[in-house]
Each structure stands twice: as structure tokens, then as C-alpha cells.
Amino acid sequence: MPATSPRAPLSRPAALGALLTLAALTLALTLAVITHPDPLGPDARWLQWFIDHRSGTLTSIAKVISALGDTTTMGILAALICGVLTGRRQWEAAIFFGLTALGAGVLTFAGKLLIGRDRPPVVDHLVTETNHSYPSGHTLGSVVIVGALVALILPLLHGLWRTLLVVVAGCFVLAVGLSRLYLGVHWPTDILGGLLIGALWLTICFTLLRPVAVRGAALVPKALCG
């Protein structure tokens, strides 16, 4: 692949605007969950819709998608990518990816611990979960890990390939969130919280680590493909 000059994932004005918007939305939703820990608005109704449309085939698909977006799976993926990048001395890409992934893990753990929202009734669960509900760790982790990888690779792609990468990544993250609703282990606002917090953290990383992200983007394909 010929050398290219990768563009920044976000210009500074755009990053600042996205950061402020996401911060406001995240704060508003999180405060609403803290002050009203029971289902918010259409939470119960929307969750019931997924429960009412379960089938054997869909359940199998949902479990597979959920496993792919699991925090452990995303953590292993992040560790493998960082390991490969580090082994090939692609320090900037490894630092950017590692810090971004580590932050996602901390936010998920801290958010669940501090907010302590109960999950939907256990009788509706199709998988076993023992921790708290908000935010959805599957969704948050998928947004951050997949988003960081896309951001590093995207500047080197052109035309249809760029669009295809973004669409596939977006569909995967959305599918992970929907699978958690289908399995009955999250309220819809947990999924929304995971999306918002994950997107906010990505934007923070792009803003603070922008030079590392831009330079690292040029190194990822070479590092991963040898």
C-alpha cells in the first residue's frame, strides 16, 4: 500500500464540539439514572418488546453476538493488538490503543460500582450476569475498542472501503447493544449510556492524544500485516 498522509480523526473544533455535546448528554442521562434507578420512560416497554419476540434461532444469534462484544473478548482483542504493535515497535499506535482500551475498562467498572443500578428481573435473563446494569459494559467496550481500531485504520482507506469499514463497525456495535436487550440483562438506557460514555471517551482520547492517533494510524496496517 503506498504511503499516505493520514488525516486527523477529528479536527480540534469538531472534537471540542463533539466533546461538549457528548458530555452534556452523558451527564444528563447518568444523573437521570442516579436519581431514578427504576426503569426510565419507555425502558420497560422496549425491553418487553425484545422479550416478546424471542425465538430459538434469534437466541442463539444473540448469544454469539453478545459473546463477541463481551468485555473479556474486547479486552483480549485489545491486548493482542497492543502486543502485536509493541512487538513491532509501533509505540505510538500501541500507546493510543492501550490507553483508550484501559480507560474503557476503568469507566465500565467505576460506572457500575458507583451508580449501582439493578438489572432487569432475573426471570427475563437468558444469560447469567452478577454485576450492576449501568452502563452496559458490552456496549461501552465495543464502542471504544472497535472505534479506536477504525480510527487508526480509516485514514489509510479510500472511497467505498472507508464507508464499508464504518458501516460494518457501526452495525457490530449496534448488534452488541441489541443483543443485550434481547437477552434481557439490560435496560435500553443502559445501552444508550454505554454508547454515550464510550463515544465521549473516544472523543477525549482523540482530543488529548491526537498527534499520537494520527501518526499511529499510518503504522497499524504495516504492524498488523508485517
Describe the structure.
- With 226 residues, this protein is an all-alpha fold.
- The protein has one domain.
- Helices cover 73% and strands 0% of the residues.
- The protein has 10 helices and no strands.
- The protein has helices at residues 12-35, 43-52, 56-68, 71-87, 91-115, 137-153, 160-182, 188-208, 210-217, 220-225.
- The two termini are 12 Å apart.
Average pLDDT works out at 87
| End-to-end Cα distance | 12 Å
Major sheet: size, sense and barrel closure?
Answer: none
Question: What share of the residues does DSSP label as strand, in percent?
Answer: under 5%
The ordered H/E elements are HHHHHHHHHH
- The count of DSSP E runs of length 2 or more, i.e. the number of strands, is 0
Summing up helix and strand content along with how strands pair, one would put the structural category as: mainly alpha
Please indicate the count of domains.
Answer: 1
- Radius of gyration, CA atoms, in whole angstroms: 18 Å
Which residue ranges are poorly predicted, with pLDDT under 50 across at least 5 consecutive positions? Answer: 1-9, 216-226
How would you sum up the global shape?
A: globular
Q: Kindly state the percentage of residues in helix.
A: over 70%
The DSSP helix count reads: 10
Please give the oligomerization state of what you see.
Answer: single chain
